[in-house]
Design a protein that fits this description.
404 residues, Rossmann fold, 3 domains, 7-stranded mixed beta sheet, 15 helices, globular, binds S-adenosylmethionine
């Protein structure tokens, strides 16, 4: 048992999870090809996303460690408030995050709200109070019920309400001629404020500067670092869900901008912590992206976790929405089953068509996709124990929408 735990730890610690998971599956007698035969699936409905509603409040991710809450006023994680401390000053929809376990933010006997013991007798009125506040924010009833458990440790992961709320000058100051030292990554250490709609020149609606390349699940940023000098005029963004990894990439970019390796460089790359599977339309406009990269995504071997894969028929409709007609989607992995899964999803989707190999000759991105990311290097370094790297490129085809 200890040896098995050590092996699992070793495989994950060395980031050899792809190899490791497969190995463990074999050991446990689990099928190594868990995805079944996609060709057996029934015909998919044809549809195109024409418009998307963006959620304005984002929940479900812990931005702060357990025992702390995200103080929206200060933009920092704060220790949760103890009994008797006032919480009235926070908007009602945030109040459920503020008090320590066993307490809830509630007004009693006509006084201002403070952290008081959870009282089931008042749960209904508390719920109604939260409900009226939450409905206008678009929080689902299920989320509301979760909020009712006033002891939940999760805080709010900040998110732009729409592309109009994103100030790209904070991410690419060199291009917007407004130098800022402070890193803004949407992490606890380097938070971003999204206080309201940003002037069009800075949110990408007007002016020449818009993000055109997106690295989804950028990990430690190897692809961005490699592509930056190849396309110095293109703004490119990495989206990464892990807090510390995002901080690492942000600091890596900042160091290059400050001339860590000679001349200042990499002004055209940036990174944001977010869940790319959920919030792309909160950051990008219809038809904005020229290239999307999915390099060595997490494989999610188990069939029950298939919905977590970052390329699926449904998500491709969202990717098609934010991609420009003619734009290119690259995917690469060393997991053959996952490659086939991603290929099948793209082939089945009416808004994507495979780019034939002859058209990819001389594609400056392909080399970086298959060799420059940290995962690609890991596979290469496995030497004779290594795997092939599988990749494909698909073109976004068809019009943007009926309305153009
Ligand atoms: C196996 S790593 C690959 C990293 C990098 N692309 C490379 O090739 O080296 C997958 C990365 O995707 C990130 N990730 C997984 N799901 C994500 C999501 N929904 N949104 C953003 N990043 C995600 C993970 O945190 C992880 O860093």
């Amino acid at each position: 048992m200890i040896a098995k735990a050590a092996l699992i730890w070793f495989l994950s610690a060395t980031e050899g999870y792809a190899v490791g998971t497969k190995f463990l599956q074999k050991k446990r007698g689990l099928p190594v090809e868990p995805f079944g035969h996609r060709s057996e699936q029934t015909t998919k409905p044809l549809f195109q996303v024409l418009d998307l509603k963006k959620p304005t409040v984002v929940e479900g991710q812990c931005l702060c460690p357990t025992g702390q809450f995200w103080n929206i006023k200060e933009g920092l994680c704060f220790k949760k408030y103890g009994a008797g401390i006032g919480c009235e000053a926070f908007p009602p929809e945030y109040q459920k995050h503020i008090c320590q376990d066993g307490l809830q933010c509630r007004a009693e006997n006509g006084s201002n709200a403070s952290c008081v013991a959870c009282a089931h007798a008042t749960a209904l009125s508390y719920r109604m109070q939260q409900q009226s506040a939450s409905l206008s924010q678009g929080i689902s009833d299920r989320k509301l019920s979760e909020g009712l458990a006033c002891c939940g440790p999760c805080s709010v992961l900040r998110c732009s309400a729409s592309p109009d709320h994103v100030d790209w000058s904070a991410h690419f100051p060199f291009f917007f001629e407004c130098p800022q030292d402070r890193l803004q990554l949407n992490t606890a250490e380097n938070p971003i404020e999204y206080p309201g709609v940003v002037p069009d020149e800075r949110n990408g609606k007007a002016g020449p500067h818009q993000v055109r390349f997106l690295d989804v699940g950028c990990g430690f940023g190897g692809l961005l670092m490699a592509l930056s000098p190849k396309f110095p005029d293109k703004l490119m963004l990495g989206m990464e869900i892990r807090e510390q990894v995002t901080n690492y990439v942000g600091k890596r970019i900042q160091a290059m901008r400050q001339g860590a390796e000679g001349e200042p460089s990499h002004h055209n790359v940036s990174v944001i912590r977010t869940n790319a599977m959920k919030f792309l339309p909160n950051y990008f406009r219809k038809g904005q992206l020229e290239k999307m990269f999915f390099c060595f995504p997490d494989p999610h071997f188990k069939r029950k976790n298939a919905r977590r894969r970052i390329i699926s028929y449904g998500l491709l409709s969202v990717y098609a929405y934010v991609m420009a007609p003619g734009g290119l989607l690259y995917h690469a992995t060393d997991v053959k089953d996952l490659h086939e899964w991603m290929d099948t999803a793209c082939e089945e989707h009416p808004l994507f068509r495979r780019v034939p190999p002859e058209e990819l000759e001389g594609d400056a991105c392909l080399e970086a996709v298959t060799a420059e990311t940290e995962e690609a290097k890991r596979v290469k370094n496995l030497g004779r124990f290594g795997h092939d790297v599988y990749f494909s490129v698909f073109r976004r085809v068809g019009p943007l929408s009926d309305g153009g």
